[in-house]
Write a structure and sequence with these properties.
The protein has 535 residues and is mainly α. It is 81% helix and 0% strand.
Length: 535
């Protein structure tokens, strides 16, 4: 037990060190973590770390999917449902078939085993590409489509995987039965996920205690995922629909105190989970190398290269027709939603990184089939899956920012955010104007103390005056103001600590004042980190 805890602490230390290094090198931490994990895996004396598939599927995947669902806009998801559906369902099925054919004719796999391999390596990862894409400032719709695909495609892949395992184990398969089961799973999980989201929000609203509400929010993704998964579904769609429901309905039911604490809690939780996932992916190199001694190196490398090439090529073959063909066939669709540029389509096709969920599914392959014979090609499937993950995360991931800049997508995203900021300034003025009118009505109906009226008026007028008229000059002034505010906060904080040391105030008073300063400082930090520097 102590050794396990020490290993975990070591992993956290590596995670922190790699994060600092990635910031200095301006690289995605996910890529460096995989590289670091691969290097650390062969350090003499380090305990053998083997990834348990149930840990990924039942403990790691639910909170990651739920958090991404809550963070996503339901309106944006609904507007982009068609491209998300074409990628999450159509592209996964198409890639699975392409891999199955290649595995059958090139590697000599039986068709059922080929479909199993296809179901494992066909879905793209939700974590790796988005961790890179968000730092590049890509257009919002592009990020929404990629995120939506990453959230939903695991559901398709997991269901196909289960069908393939049964087909390999029993040598029986019914297409009509599989199709009917698939539709039933999709509909059932969507309904169940919304029901879990509804129940979670009502319980949290009833609790009215931030710590209890955050505890309930932590339980929500597991309740949404585990039940469908144990009943033979994927659990993914239920968790996604639960997260989207909470994202859409939650703002009116979740108190501000819970939101402030919940944001910090979930940010830290997701950060640690994602970091450990990428690190463990690299650490699995040692396990897979130890299991590959029964194969010829050329056979392993050749199979990995072929399958990696197939999944990359299949995505291009699917994405371009799926993007433009529906608009050519439907003028109404083309008018309502014009075709994107080839640059956007190319980037979506290029962003086909695979992740640890594929590795977890591969590790979950049973060792034997129904007859008791060894599961065919299990070790080779594991090695190929890991190879595809490493090649796509490191190979494609490293050049992803360069591709985005070369295609002009980062610049397009910057222009989009500038337009959004102009709209936001207008909306902020309107909201403050409505609140000020409301204040004047209240003053007219009630006899309020003069000091209270003056304070509220000054507050609203001051907030209106802080909104910039010109984006460039206004934002520059806001940044300068934020720097001065930070300096004043530091001076005030130092003074409070001097009073505490001199015994002129109590620790309780210091904590209350410090909490208010922390909130203001956090607000300044959010403005600096957001696009435009003041959001």
């Amino acid at each position: 037990m102590a050794a396990t805890f020490q290993t975990f602490l070591f992993m956290l230390a590596v995670l922190a060190g790699v994060a600092v290094l990635a910031k200095r090198l301006r690289m995605a931490p996910s890529i460096l973590l995989v590289i670091a994990g691969t290097a650390i895996a062969f350090i003499p004396g380090l305990p053998r770390i083997e990834l348990a598939p149930e840990v990924v599927l039942l403990l790691i995947l639910p909170p990651l999917i739920y958090s991404a669902g809550v963070s996503m806009s339901w309106r944006d998801f609904r507007f982009n449902l068609r491209p998300i559906f074409l990628l999450a369902f159509g592209c996964v099925i198409f890639t699975t078939c392409a891999v199955a054919a290649a595995a059958h004719y090139i590697l000599g796999f039986e068709w059922a085993v080929g479909f199993l391999l296809g179901a494992i390596i066909s879905p793209t990862d939700v974590v790796a590409p988005l961790a890179i894409a968000r730092k590049m400032g890509l257009p919002r719709r592009l990020v929404v489509v990629l995120e939506g695909e990453g959230l939903a495609n695991d559901a398709t892949a997991l269901v196909l995987y289960r069908f393939a395992v049964v087909a390999v184990s029993t040598s029986t398969f019914s297409l009509s039965h599989a199709a009917g089961t698939f539709v039933l799973i999709v509909v059932g999980e969507l309904i169940y996920g919304v029901a879990v989201g509804w129940l979670s929000l009502r319980l949290r609203h009833w609790a009215q205690e931030p710590r209890v509400e955050i505890t309930l929010s932590l339980m929500t993704p597991f309740l949404a995922f585990w039940v469908p998964y144990e009943l033979g579904g994927s659990g993914v769609l239920a968790t996604v629909s639960c997260g989207l429901y909470v994202s859409w309905i939650g703002p009116r039911l979740i108190p501000s105190a819970t939101r402030l604490q919940g944001i910090f809690f979930w940010d830290l939780l997701v950060y640690l989970i994602e970091g450990v996932v990428f690190l463990v992916t690299g650490l699995e190199t040692r396990v897979l190398v130890e299991q590959s001694h029964n194969f010829v190196v050329a056979e392993l490398v050749g199979a990995t290269i072929w399958m990696t090439a197939i999944v990359i090529a299949a995505r291009y073959v699917w994405v371009f027709p799926a993007t433009y063909l529906p608009r050519w066939l439907s003028p109404a669709l083309a008018k309502r939603d014009p075709s994107p540029t080839w640059r956007t389509t190319f980037f979506i096709a290029f962003t086909g990184l695979r992740g640890v969920d594929s590795l977890a599914v591969a590790l979950a392959i049973p060792y034997t089939i129904a007859s008791g014979a060894p599961f065919p090609h299990r070790d080779l499937i594991l090695f190929v899956t890991f190879g595809v993950i490493v090649v796509t995360i490191i190979g494609q991931g490293l050049v992803l920012p360069t591709v985005a800049r070369s295609l002009g997508l980062s610049k397009a995203g910057l222009n989009e955010r500038r337009h959004e900021q102009k709209v936001e300034i207008k909306v902020r003025r309107q909201a403050l104007g409505i609140a000020l009118k409301r204040l004047e009505k209240i003053i007219g109906r009630k006899k309020l103390p003069k000091d209270v009226v003056e304070h509220l008026r000054i507050r609203h007028v001051s907030r209106i005056g802080q909104l910039p008229d010109d984006m460039e000059d206004g934002l520059a002034h806001r940044r300068q103001t934020a720097e001065l505010k930070q300096d004043l906060i530091n001076v005030e904080r130092d003074f409070i600590y001097e009073l505490l040391r001199d015994g002129k105030i109590t620790d309780e008073a210091r904590r209350r004042i410090e909490y208010e300063l922390d909130l203001e400082e956090a607000s300044l930090a959010n403005r600096r980190e957001s696009d435009g520097g003041w959001l």
